[in-house]
Design brief:
Rossmann fold; 9-stranded mixed sheet; 25 strands; 30% helix; binds adenosine-5'-diphosphate
């Protein structure tokens, strides 16, 4: 080997904040605090305080690899924690407070966190669970509050007790920097352990012009919580690109978001579809518009055409992205290609409603049940497998879970079922457990649901598999009615028959008063499958 003669600095997360402090020292980080008032300071201030925090953590005895948990809103303190903890080789373990008690207890104990930096909002939750959490875990409060918990210190006291005389250390870029557990609705949570290298490469990839491009003229509002999947990497991509950061704290309702967007000149917002739906409703109901906003990035679940068009009408581009905790999270972005400019608006919208194309650095393929690779023809469905330098290759201390989803050559089974077209655009058709397998062929529940929801009598639709003696499984369509309407099997089947071959049509249609939902608004198909496990389609 002829070894190249270029710099071999380790890729470390601390590069981001150091770069911002040197080159964007006066660029602002604006946060809505817990009680409402706006806090503002700069990357220069943030980096100095992160240095003090790093010294405080070292004084407390944090060693490389130690898990330091955070349970906090999107504010400047959480930003400092990301950098203070990872910057000294600690592992910033963000904890999602909306998980169930059982999941939280599992996660704290499995990660064996040494410290917990706790936002006052979540004190009652931790008081309730304290007896079942690691006994040695020490608690630091992010702001003063009454509690029965035994508290080691207040955050501001820790920071105030140190000075800024500190250099960010260099160490192996393969060291872990952050930990986030998946919130899978089935099974126990699994720990995704990001490395400095994976995080930095992901931040480069995610900032590319064809991805979540952001520059030093931008103002970025991450509504997506920093307690899940590293706030879609914004704690790293923002300082890396010198953008002004605006943090919403605990308030993500339409009015609060509007105040920040207009008040701070936000150009890019990141969040799940519900956030953008609520925000659009707020604008509509209050007869308001946005002046600075030009892009909203939406991911986590699919977006609807109506929502995309509503933002379009306001002069804002809604960019659809797909990713997972296991992918840091970015996998695909639905950005157009040059050739699409020749298409009409409708056809362009169809492209933008797909989950998008792989971001540079992410490899993708689809496979059938036997693991055989399927063509990228936009028709054939298969399980989506991904591989890359920021894709998980194992879960933290969980060999069993790792074996189930990671192949020897690094391909990770996403559990999503998709089609990929010749241009590389991915269209998610199902979660693997929801796909309907009829006579060896796969039927997409999502495609049928979307088509059924276009029916004028239907409010909501879910398609599940019911067992069938000959075909193994057949689709069953379950709908709720719009007020005053009565959807029928005949009219729904007639509508679906226009788009789907006969063998894909549901064997029956059931009308329920309501469908079961999760806390985040997804239909609980598991429950529906249990309800209709023994369902027999009547001969007609
Ligand atoms: P969890 O923590 O439960 O793994 P993630 O936040 O990692 O949750 O979510 C990953 C899953 O969310 C994906 O596997 C996919 O099923 C779904 N998802 C993410 N983005 C999209 C999208 N744009 N469209 C449809 N589904 C999506």
């Amino acid at each position: 080997m002829l070894r190249g003669l270029m710099g071999e600095q380790e890729l470390l997360v601390s590069m981001c904040i150091q770069h911002a402090a040197r080159n964007h020292a006066d660029t602002e980080i604006v946060s809505r605090t817990l009680d409402g008032p706006i806090h503002r300071y700069t990357y220069g201030d943030a980096e100095r305080r992160a240095r003090r925090l790093a010294k405080a953590l070292l004084r407390l005895g944090v060693e490389p690899g130690d898990r330091v948990a955070t349970m906090a809103w999107n504010t400047y303190r959480h930003f400092e924690l990301y950098h203070g903890i990872s910057g000294i080789g600690g592992v910033c373990h963000t904890i999602n407070p909306v998980l169930s008690d059982e999941q939280l207890i599992y996660i704290f104990n499995h990660a064996d966190d040494r410290f917990l930096f706790l936002e006052a909002t979540f004190i009652p939750l931790i008081e309730r669970l304290r007896a079942q959490l690691p006994a040695g875990m020490q608690i630091i409060l992010l702001s003063p509050a009454e509690t029965t918990l035994s508290v080691l210190a207040l955050y501001e006291d820790l920071v105030a007790a140190e000075n800024e005389d500190f250099d960010w250390p260099a160490f192996d870029e393969r060291s872990a920097c952050a930990l986030c557990y998946t919130s899978g609705t089935t099974g126990k949570p699994k720990g995704v352990l990001y490395s400095h290298r994976s995080t930095m490469l992901h931040a480069f990839g995610a900032s590319l012009p064809g991805a979540i491009a952001m520059g030093a003229t931008d103002v970025v509002l991450p509504v997506v919580p920093m307690f899940h999947v590293c706030g879609w990497a914004t704690p790293y991509t923002a300082p890396m690109n010198g953008v002004k950061l605006v943090y919403p704290g605990p308030k993500t309702d339409g009015a609060s978001i509007y105040e920040l967007i207009e008040g701070e000149g936000v150009t890019i917002g990141l969040g799940v579809p519900t956030v953008w739906l609520n925000f659009n409703n707020y604008l509509r109901d209050n007869n308001q518009n946005v002046t600075s906003l030009r892009t909203v990035l939406s991911g986590g679940t699919a977006i609807s055409k109506t929502l995309l068009q509503a933002y379009e009408a306001r002069g804002v581009t809604m960019v659809h992205a797909w990713g997972m905790t296991e992918m840091s999270p970015l996998g695909t972005i639905a950005a157009l290609k040059r050739k699409h400019s020749a298409l009409g608006k409708e056809a362009q919208t169809d492209v933008r409603l797909t989950q998008g194309r792989a971001v540079f650095g992410v490899e993708m393929k689809i496979v059938n049940d036997e693991g055989v690779e399927q063509p990228h023809d936009g028709e054939t469905m298969g399980e989506l497998l991904v591989r890359g330098p920021w894709v998980v290759r194992g879960y933290y201390n969980d060999e069993e879970a790792t074996k189930a989803v990671v192949e020897k050559d690094g391909w990770f089974h996403t559990g999503d079922v998709a089609k990929i077209d010749p241009d590389g655009y991915v269209k998610l058709t199902d979660r693997r457990k929801d796909v309907i397998k009829s006579g060896g062929e796969w039927i997409s529940s999502i495609d049928l649901e979307n088509a059924a929801m276009a029916h004028e009598d239907v409010a909501e639709a879910a398609v599940i598999a019911i067992p069938h003696p000959k075909w193994d499984e057949r689709p069953l369509l379950i709908v709720t009615a719009r007020p005053g309407r009565q959807p029928t099997r005949e009219s729904l089947t007639a509508l679906l028959a226009k788009r789907f071959p006969k063998w894909m049509l549901p064997d029956d249609v059931i009308v329920l008063d309501e469908l079961p939902h999760t806390g985040t608004g997804k239909v609980v198909k598991l429950k529906l499958r249990e309800m209709f496990r023994d369902y027999i389609v009547a001969e007609r």
